[in-house]
Please model this.
Amino acid sequence: MKKTMLVDLDYVICSPGFLPIVNGFFDTNYEEDDFEEYIIDDVFGEKAQDFYDYYVQQDGYKDAVFKEGAKESLERLSKYYTIHICSACVMFGAERKSAKLFADKYNFLIRELPFLNPEDIIFTNSKNIFKADVQIDDRLPNLQGEVKTKLLFDAYHNRTITDEELQNQGVKRVKSWKEIEDILLDNM
Ligand SMILES: [Mg+2]
Model:
C-alpha cells in the first residue's frame, strides 16, 4: 500500500503568480525576499479590497514559477506515495472574494501535474486535521497535525525560525526537491 503525503502548493511546488499581480496593481517591483512575513498587508494599505477585486479578475497562476525539479520529483514520488496537494484557497481579509482562487489553483494543478489524481486534491485552510506519513509546507503553523515526517520548505517568510525551534516541533527544514527526494526515497 502506498504511503500518504500532504504537499502544499504555494512556495513549495511553485511561487504563485500573486506577487507579479501585486506589482502590476501597485506599480512596484517587489521580490519575495523583500518580505519577512507571509502576509504582506502593509503593501495593500487602504487599497486592500480594491486590490482583491482586481486580483480575482486575473489568473492567479499565469506567472507561477515552479521550484527546480518539483514536477519531476512529484512524479517519481507518486510511485510510492498517494500525493494529496493540500492548499489553502481562502484569502485572509478577502474571504468572500476567494472562490476564483479555488478554480485557478485547480486548473493549474490538473494542467501542470497530470500524473496526480484530481480526486486527491484537498483545498482547505485547516491543514492540521489530517493524518499522513509525510507533510511538506512552508508555514510552520500548518505542520501541527498527526504526521510522521514533517518538512518545512525554506521560504522568504520562515527564515527567522531557528533550527532549535524546528527540532522542538519535530520538523526538518528542506531547501530543495532534491533534498526531499533524498529523505523520502531513501528507504524505498
Ligand atoms: Mg505555502
The domain at 3-14+67-184 is CATH 3.40.50.1000 (Rossmann fold). The first strand starts at residue 3 and ends at 7.
